[in-house]
Each structure stands twice: as structure tokens, then as C-alpha cells.
Amino acid sequence: MKEITNRLQRFPLELVFWIGSLIAILTIDPSASTHFSLCPLDQLGFSWCPGCGLGRSMNLLANGNFQASWSMHPLAMLAYVVIFYRIWQLIKNLKTTHNYG
């Protein structure tokens, strides 16, 4: 049991989360009328949220639709920068703490 706990503590869960999030963003359909949402405001029935449209905007930006991306949510590029920077930090930390080179 202790070895399982040690392995789980060393597993880069946050890195897997961010990479999975990028994959999920790239696979969504930004033109769909309904979409799956984890937004707590959406779950509570509010129609407005400051992050609403960010995932779809990031998808449009990845597909080269800059104007549509900007009009849907102007912080898509900043979100990419933050996520990639965090992934880079986690990989760098993983390499130094686990001696992967």
C-alpha cells in the first residue's frame, strides 16, 4: 500500500490534466449549439460566465480562425500561453526531480 501511495505522489497528475485539457479543447466543435460544460455557474443556471466561450475560442484559434476566436473570447491566446508555460514548468520539474535527463 505504501508503494502505491509513493507512486501516486510521484505521478504528474497536473501535467496529465493540462495535456488532456488541450486535447479536449482541440476536439470540441465550436459551432455546436450545445456542449458539455463543467462550469459551476452554468450548472447553477446562470447564462453568463466570465470564462464562457474560452474553450471554443481556443479551438478556433488553433484552427486559424483568429477573428472568430477574438470575437468569442479575447483571452484565448493568453490561456494558451499560461497552459503551455505551466506544462513546460511541470516537465522541467519532472526532469530535475526524476533525473530523466
Automatic annotation (TrEMBL):
Pfam families: DUF2752. The chain crosses the membrane at residues 12-28, 68-88. InterPro entries: DUF2752. Keywords: Membrane, Transmembrane, Transmembrane helix. This is DUF2752 domain-containing protein. The lineage of its organism: Bacteria, Pseudomonadati, Bacteroidota, Cytophagia, Cytophagales.
